[in-house]
């Protein structure tokens, strides 16, 4: 594989600057958690709430990793858990992480087949 040469100019530099600043902006949001109340209400961890996620554009059927409920999602980047299971267990519905990002010693939930 060979990639075409991209002649480096001010526009290329500005794109690099833009992406760098976006990463810093997102990192500060993750650290400062400015929308904490809304984020917790949505059962979403700091990473999933503040970092843009990419998924393929296709309606996708998915199943909750705890109760097995079937649902539809607007992209291939489906949630891990239904909102009820996420909220009941203090987990992020998107990725399944603990809402405080703490490793717990005991699994509170029971998997339904
Ligand atoms: Zn569920
Ligand atoms: Zn998450």
Bound molecules: zinc ion
Question: Terminal Cα separation, in Å?
Answer: 46 Å
Rg value: 19 Å
What's the mean pLDDT score? 95
Number of strands: 2
Q: Report the structural category.
A: mainly alpha
Tell me the count of domains: 1
Query: Which segments are poorly predicted (pLDDT under 50) over 5 or more consecutive residues?
Result: none
Biggest beta sheet summary? 2 strands, antiparallel
Strand content: 5-15%
Strand order of the largest sheet: 1-2
Shape call: extended
User: What string, H for helix and E for strand, traces the elements in order?
Assistant: HHHEEH
Proportion of helical residues: 25-40%
Count of alpha/pi helices: 4
Provide an overview of this structure:
This protein is mostly helical and 113 residues long. It has one domain (10-89). It contains 4 helices and 2 strands, in the order H-H-H-E-E-H. It has helices at residues 10-32, 36-41, 46-50, 83-89, and strands at residues 60-63, 70-73. A two-stranded antiparallel sheet has the order 1-2. The radius of gyration is 19 Å and the shape is extended. The relative contact order is 0.13. The mean pLDDT is 95. Bound molecules: zinc ion (ZN) (2 copies).
């Amino acid at each position: 594989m060979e990639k075409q040469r991209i002649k480096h100019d001010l526009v290329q530099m500005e794109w690099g600057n833009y992406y760098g600043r976006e990463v810093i902006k997102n990192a500060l949001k993750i650290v400062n958690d400015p929308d904490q109340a809304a984020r917790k209400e949505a059962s979403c961890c700091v990473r999933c709430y503040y970092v843009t996620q990419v998924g393929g554009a296709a309606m996708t059927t998915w199943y909750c990793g705890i109760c097995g409920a079937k649902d539809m999602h607007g992209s291939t980047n489906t949630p891990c858990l239904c909102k009820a299971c996420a909220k009941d267990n203090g987990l992020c519905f998107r990725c399944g992480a603990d809402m405080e990002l703490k490793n717990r010693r005991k699994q509170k939930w029971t998997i339904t087949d």
